[in-house]
Amino acid sequence: MKFIDQTQNNVRSNYNSLQATLTQRFSRGVSFKAGYTYGHGLDNGSLNRFALTPQDSRHPELEYASSDSDVRHRFTITPSYEIPGIKGFGQLLDGWKLNAIVSIQTAQPWSMADTGNDFSGTGEQADRWNFYGNPGDFKSGASGIPYCDFSGVADIRKGIGGVNCYQQSQISGIYTNLSPSLAQQCVAKAADLDTLAAGGCYVSANGNSVMLPPKAGTFGTMGRNIFRDSGFKNVDFSVFKAFRFTERFNAQFRAEFFNVFNHPNIANPYGAANGSKLGWDPSGPGGFGAGGATPDTAAGNPFLGSGSPRVIQLGLKLSF
To answer: Would you kindly state where each structural domain of the chain is located, as residue ranges?
Structure first.
């Protein structure tokens, strides 16, 4: 088999958005700035170094879909409140200030590619599968999408005795056995029982949506980036205490809490949220659909990037 590699500037992208900002100037100790963005980004290729090749390299235009970095809704607010103080008492009852940064954004897309089976026979290791149902049922998270393994089935045409359906946490590694009846959805929708036996299938926990291999020698019906991750929510909080000693010498003590509620944010399995592509390959069933890490760790920036667990920082600033 021979390959011809081409490098072209033929990626197409489109972005539209509505942006709104509300500002409260300092009044009675309160100030804040709130921002909201509604946007939609589309393209037929978002990444370069970490990008997958198109499923059908003869038709890259068929990859046109929501971009990896598409965030439909994003809201941020940065409130600040200077607490009214009482003079005296060694400055313990004045100079206090509370601050917060609240960030909420809806889910980003993630795509998939089968690098282990080559059901299409192209040798490009970028096949997508067939999908039936609601893509929202395959929302990514800490655990992989439920998987049914047919390797223990003697002959699917005679029944599914021996099928093993399970879900695996990519945080603890624990397997949870699921009802074998989920596999009936796979058999009912299968385009090719032989590829089903080789690749298995993925079924939503409610059994309403299923993803399974295409017929041998064909491409899957899935579009690019049809799935979404679990979004991003984060609250940072800080307390400042100012001390004034002379007209030219003062100090500020800070206690800062990043992700103050310790809310778990799980990385996107593939898209722009990280460069390490985690649960995007269905030929690795235990982790398919799982971020398996927080976004900061997945991107190689533990604690410095967004998405870390709660971090507390204390600081003292002297001004003179």
So the answer is: 16-319
